[in-house]
Amino acid sequence: MQQVLAGRSGLLRLAVASLSVVVLVGPALARPTEPSATDRQIALAVSILMEQQHLTQRKIDDQASERCLQSMLKTLDPLKLYFYQSDVDEFAGSEHELDDMVRRGDIKMAYRIFDRFLQRVDERITMALKEVDVDHDFTLDEEMVRDADAATYAKTPEEAQDKWRRRVKYEVLNLIADDMDIDAIREKLRRRYTSIGKRWEQTSNDELMEMYLTAMTTGFDPHSTYMSPTTLDNFEIHMRLKLDGIGASLRSEDGYTKVHQIIAGGAADQDGRLKGGDEIVGVGQGSDGEIEDVVDMKLNDVVDKIRGKKGSIVRLEVRPAANPTDHRIYDIVRQEIKLTESEARSVIIDWGQKPNGESYKVGVLSLPSFYMDMDAARAGDPNYKSTTRDVRRLLNDFNAKGVDAVVIDLRFNGGGSLTEAVNMTGLFIDKGPVVQVKGPTGRAQPFVDPEAGMVWSGPLVVLTNKFSASASEIFAGAMQDYNRGLIVGDETTHGKGTVQQLYDVAQLLFRIRNDMNLGAMKLTIQQFYRPDGDSTQNRGVAADIVLPSLTSHLDIGEADLDYALAFNRITPLGHDEYQMVDANLVQQLQQNSTARIEKSEDFSDDIKRINKYEEQKDRKSVTLNKEKFMAERAELNADKEQEDAFEDAVNNDRPVFDDEDHYNQEALSIVVDYLKLLKNNRVAIAH
Question: Is residue 470 flagged as an active site residue?
Fold first, then answer.
């Protein structure tokens, strides 16, 4: 396996973590025991690969060792709620030894840190449960530190107890603001804290090894990671957009596995009984298999029990959202599920008015990722699942139906296959370079449009936001450099300008193709550059027309990640110019858009929310005074705003393009203005 990726951003990895019956996972295991001989071989292979193949050609040295320790602690305890300062000081005594250890395949330090972490989790959960039953005084003017960088580790048990007193008080206030009564709040928090401890206890050896090796590799850059067998399976499902199962996405909430979404056309949808919001409390195999309690079980392990071979039966014990006191048993036959909500989709929208009185036809194409079925491609299947093939089909349909302009919606598209990004770009240009990639040798290699001609030669608008990353930035950057299309959205995209390659660890160790899954190394091997020579790294692709949006203000860009590589540029390549966009046209479009936005009550509300968000986001702490807390929540809940943005990043259960949304309506108005300003110059002709 050597699949080249203009991969997903670190942000989207975090966002995707909570949703998952559309993934395969490994078996449920007890807490980590000790490294196996295979674990040592994997660690050794990863360390050798990092030093030999990483873009920077750096060595695993004392700096990498320091970063590994910092990243491991941050992964386990980002808000510094669990470890004591003395724990951190103790680990720091070995911070210059981790590099030497991992080069020997020794990952015992991971177990040492994690064992201590589990000990502290037990202690802190006891502290938290004690505070749940306290009658807190909400008239006091005290605060809780909410900023991870401003937080400090507790030095004494008394300081730790006070941290958790404030944490519990804050969570009680949040639930009071949601109109929950105190008895229900206490029950919910007891479940929440008890579940936290139980779920950490279920961490497997594979998960711990992935956590630790990734802490080491992300010290080189944020996107070089070790993918455990489970994570590798998940990734491949995402790329091929199909799996065997019941067709439901699940999420974990305070120890319960809750149905988040029923996938249209899947087994659960056809059965009709399982609904969004239902809780799955037990799972059995076959028509008469014993049902196992899954309350407080890790989400991935619950998913693994529900997943299975097509045609087999899974029995679910369900507590329906409509009647939580009831328990029902649903037997569902597993099927192959096609994740059609994650593939390219389209809609034609009538908008604006032509001089003859007819409406403009705008073809909108929504693309959540740049996907490719790698297994089918490797097997030589000529009909393997492909972004480019799907987009070509949709564009041909647009041509047949006489659309006036095409909108490619890349908002929340975190990337995917580099090959697909190049090939899809070729549908909109006649010929020429799409992207340049440069590896450790320093020599830039162009990736060119593989096929002459254009499938769509008319006006093009590309919608982006700060979640648009990697392959999305390759496409948007090429459209901008060729003056082929107009970029509309957030001030800039994510800024991930590096290329990763997957290396199968089993093949590395045994030098032969086999069915053993030991995970994979996703390694940054190149940096990519636009045809005009600029990297998107750290800077992203700047929009031609900027629209007000909260996503533009989230600290989720590449520049916000630890140890991100720097921006640079290389020699530009010669290429065609299409003259579909120029500075005067952009200026007029922005003026028209700004005038509409200034008159829009919806955008006025957006701007007020953005200003309040910025104000709250920059605070290092949050008030625990009920009166002040409620007043702030009435204006804006910054944490909820960010949570909703992450939810949008992974939510494919939405229309292709909601033309009743004021943001989308403004985007359509920009398209119509664009068409009018182009006049008769609506065909891309190379100059």
Answer: yes
Q: CATH top-level class for 341-601+663-678?
A: alpha beta
Statement: residue 23 has pLDDT above 80:
no
Token duo for residue 174: 């949040």
Q: Can you identify the CATH homologous superfamily of domain 242-338?
A: PDZ domain (2.30.42.10)
- How many other β-carbons are positioned within 10 Å of the β-carbon of residue 77? 20
Q: Which of 77, 481, 544, 606 is catalytic?
A: 481
Contact between 405 and 461 under an 8 Å Cβ cutoff? The reply is yes
Which residues does 157 contact at the CB level (< 8 Å), separation at least 6?
Answer: none
Give residue-wise pLDDT tens across range 357-409: 999 999 999 999 999 987 788 888 888 889 999 999 999 999 999 999 999 99
> Would residue 361 show up in a list of annotated catalytic residues for this protein?
no
Domain ranges of the chain: 59-219, 242-338, 341-601+663-678
Predicted TM-score (pTM) of this structure: 0.87
Q: 47 an active-site residue?
A: no
C-alpha torsion 237→242→243→249, nearest 10: 80
Q: Please say whether the beta carbons of 163 and 81 come within 8 A.
A: yes
Query: DSSP per residue over 182-222, as a string?
Result: HHHHHHHHHHHHHHHHHHHHT--HHHHHHHHHHHHHTTT-T
DSSP 502-568: EEEHHHHHHSS--S----EEEEEEEEEE-TTSBB-TTT--B-SEE---GGGGSS-SGGGSTTPPPP-
**Beta pairing partners, 336:** 244
Q: Which of 496, 532, 606, 673 is catalytic?
A: 496
- Indicate which residue of 20, 249, 366, 470 is catalytic: 470
Could you tell me what percentage of the chain is helix, strand and coil, using 3-state DSSP and rounding each to the nearest 5?
40, 20, 40
Is the sign of the CA dihedral 475, 479, 480, 486 positive or negative?
A: negative
Give the C-alpha separation, 413 to 371, whole Å: 11
